[in-house]
Each structure stands twice: as C-alpha cells, then as structure tokens.
Amino acid sequence: MKRILLLGGVTEALAIARTLGPQHIYSLAGVGRVPTDLTCQVRVGGYGGAEGLAQFIRDERISLILDATHPYAAQISQNAAQAARLSDVPCWALRRPAWQPQPGDDWREVADWAELVEALKPFKRPLFTLGREPLQHLDEIPAEQFWTLRALDVYPGNERCEVIGARGPFLIEDERALFEERRIDVLISKNSGSTATEPKLEVAREQGVPVLVLKRPVLAAMDREFTAVPALLEAITLF
C-alpha cells in the first residue's frame, strides 16, 4: 500500500489533503486551525529535524513526501529533502510562483530584519503582514512610528502597536478600508504568491504606498516540483 506524507503550510495543501484517503497523512506544524473534516490522518507537531522525519517515514512506511509548506519555510523544506534522501523515498514539492511587480508598484526588496528596520525609517504608519515575527521586536518600535500588525491570531501589542487577528482571503474593499483607517504609509509583506492575500498589493498600488518585500529564501531542490495543484494531483494518480 502506497502512503503519502503531505507536509502542509499553504492553503493549497488543504485542497490536496481533501483528496487523500485514510492511509495517507496530512502533517501540520501546529500554527493555525487544524481541520477536522478530512478522510486522511492528521498529524500536528514537529519531527526533530531531518533525521527524526526520516525515522518517521521509515516507521510509517511512507512512499512519497509532498512538500506543500510555505515558500518561506526553508528549513522545513530542507529537512524534507534530506529526510527523503535518508529514507530513500521521493520528495515532490508544490512551489507557488512569486508575485511580480506591476506598473505603478513601488516595491523595495529587503533581505532580513536589519535591512527592513533601515528601510522603515522614513515611515510613520507601517502595516506588517509577516506573521508573528514582528512580535519579537515590539520594544524596538521608534517613538515616531505606530505599527499595525496582522497575524492569523490576536496577540498582545503595546502603546505603539496594535495586532489584528485575521485570516484570508481578504476582500479588496476591506483592504482599502484598513489602509485608510490606519493611514498606512508603507506595507511590509512576504512574497507568498497567495491569491488570498494579494488584494493588499492592489491597494498599495492604487494608493501609491511603497511595499517592503522580504526576499524569498532559496528552497531545497526536489525530485519533482509543481506550480499548481491540478498538475500535482494528476501526478499523484500516476505514482
């Protein structure tokens, strides 16, 4: 019996999981909501690095690893690729195409947090859409700035930062309202390539708001890589 281990992390992973039968495993890191309506098994939590993942693959007799993690989850993808080699099973990946700047965009790529902080200096009202990472820097907010931070869940902010808990997809009308109500003068975003969160980029373009884009990490090479779910699902049926 062939068994698939699906490593989730993007919206498309759930669509793949919904096609899997009870012998397969959908693996989540534990951030966000855990689906309860799937036919396949659901596993939540880490593995202890590449060697731990390889041992799990051997113990569970996994035939194929599917890496559908977030484009910025470089370490998880690296662990998956290494575990595949250690356990001698193939590893395929779903790789979302990156967003591309359009006419009227003012995108400024930054490599890391230090570059981001430097690029933020001219601005007063940034909107962060990087997930939870900025929460580690709330005590570093300059006195002249007020941060709006959007994450999957609500977390405590402080007198110069409000955290909004919200999950996509986001409507462009709501994004316009957010930018206007918060007087956003710069957007900070990962280049996730997700259609669910793309409206914020459209609003930034409309309003002439610069976008500081965190550079995508280089991901591990896989045995096969797909950019769309239908092609991946077709390949699974032939595996």
Structure, explained:
It comes from Pseudomonas paralactis. This protein is an alpha/beta fold. The protein folds into two domains: 4-97 and 217-238, Rossmann fold (3-Layer(aba) Sandwich); 107-214, NAD(P)-binding Rossmann-like Domain (Rossmann fold, 3-Layer(aba) Sandwich). It has helices spanning 11-17, 49-59, 74-87, 113-120, 172-182, 199-207, 229-238; strands at residues 4-7, 25-28, 41-44, 64-67, 91-94, 107-110, 126-129, 147-151, 161-165, 186-190, 211-214, 224-226. The strands form two sheets. The chain has a six-stranded parallel beta sheet with strand order 3-2-1-4-5-12, sandwiched between helices. A six-stranded parallel beta sheet has the order 6-11-10-7-8-9, sandwiched between helices. Helix 3 links the parallel strand 4 and strand 5.
Oligomer: single chain
What is the CA-based Rg, rounded? 19 Å
Mean pLDDT: 94
Summing up helix and strand content along with how strands pair, one would put the structural category as: alpha/beta
Q: Which percent range describes the beta-strand content?
A: 15-25%
State the order of secondary-structure elements, H for helix, E for strand. Answer: EHEEHEHEEHEEEHEHEEH
Q: Which sheet architecture does the biggest sheet show?
A: 6 strands, parallel
Describe the global form.
elongated
Spatial separation of the terminal alpha carbons: 12 Å
At the fourth CATH level, what is the homologous superfamily of the largest domain? NAD(P)-binding Rossmann-like Domain
Number of separate strands: 12
Q: Which fold name corresponds to the CATH topology of the largest domain?
A: Rossmann fold
* CATH structural architecture of the largest domain: 3-Layer(aba) Sandwich
Strand order of the largest sheet: 3-2-1-4-5-12
Q: What is the top-level CATH class of the largest domain? A: Alpha Beta
Overall structural domain count:
2
The parts where pLDDT drops under 50 for at least 5 residues are none
Helicity range of the residues? 25-40%
Total helices: the number is 7
